[in-house]
Design brief:
Blueprint (H helix, E strand, L loop, with lengths): L1 H15 L1 H31 L6 H25 L4 H17 L1 H16 L7 E4 L2 E8 L3 E6 L4 E5 H5 L4 E2 L6 E9 L5 H13 L4 E2 L5 E8 L2 E10 L4 H18 L9 E2 L3
Helix pairs in contact: 2-3, 7-8
């Protein structure tokens, strides 16, 4: 009798629930095939569109994982499994994880935006977060700089993207400015000629735009001259040191009287 009841219940379940399970299995198999097909298409599409190689694995993994989760939930729903309790657990876990990793998510979002919008690229010289260096690595969560004195600086992308970034390299050239102060006894045209000759004999200075040499200010204790030339960003400091030293030497050789504070910091 029990065996007959079992067969009867099984027959009833097979009629009422069997089609749902069969449909769920078919949908699951079709979904797996579609996800694999979509994965190949996405990989080829991102490669053809030259999406950043750092972002490709992330976007691919995120999309495919999301599709797998949606497929599983869809199959469970077709079969008729109750997911209310499970959904509540997943939602609670998501909220807790979001609160705990808010800073990490901010860095991640900053990394994605940097890779997409490209405010700077590898080998660019940037000034950010009080640091001046060459970009050697752009990761999803942080960016690595190498400073002129060979220090490695690691900056979280969240802070980096939300603050001012000075890209020294992007425009291809950089203006070098500095000033010098001389007494009123000097001949202005002579000083300008000496400076111009020093510029002409300094390698690495870009001639267009033309260098600017002139009187910047007339002060109580002397004349303030300004010098502005264009250089390649990588040569900035080397040319600045060389040119300032050459101007001082040339002025002395020309018997131009120099005050004690002959050179002022560059602007």
């Amino acid at each position: 009798m029990k065996l007959e009841e079992f067969y009867a219940e099984f027959h009833h379940w097979l009629i009422t629930r069997g089609p749902n399970y069969i449909s769920g299995i078919l949908i699951f198999l079709i979904g797996l095939w579609f996800i694999r097909f979509l994965k190949v298409r996405m990989r080829n599409r991102m490669s053809n569109r030259q999406v950043d190689s750092t972002l490709q694995p992330f976007f691919l993994s995120l999309t495919i994982t999301t599709l797998y989760v949606l497929l599983t939930l869809c199959v469970f729903n077709i079969i008729g499994w109750e997911l209310g309790f499970l959904s509540a657990i997943i939602a609670s876990f998501g909220v807790a994880a979001g609160l705990a990793l808010s800073g990490t998510f901010q860095n991640f979002a900053g990394g994605v935006l940097i890779l997409l919008l490209k405010p700077f690229e590898l080998k660019d010289n940037i000034i950010a977060q009080g640091q001046d260096g060459i970009v050697t690595s752009i990761q999803l969560f942080y960016t690595v700089l190498i400073t002129g004195d060979n220090r490695t600086i690691i900056i979280p992308n969240g802070k980096l993207f939300n603050e001012v970034i000075v890209n020294v390299t992007r425009e291809g050239k950089r203006r070098l400015d500095f000033e010098l102060k001389l007494g009123y006894i000097v001949d202005v045209e002579q000083v300008k000629g000496i400076i111009d000759n020093a510029i002409k004999n300094t390698k690495g200075i870009i001639r267009k735009p033309e260098p600017i040499i002139g009187v910047y200010a007339l002060e109580i204790d002397g004349i303030r001259f300004t010098v502005r030339v264009w250089v390649n960003p990588a040569d900035y400091f080397d040319i600045k040191l060389f040119l300032q030293e050459k101007i001082v030497k040339d002025l002395r050789e020309a018997d131009v009287k120099l005050p004690n504070h002959h050179l002022l910091p560059g602007t």
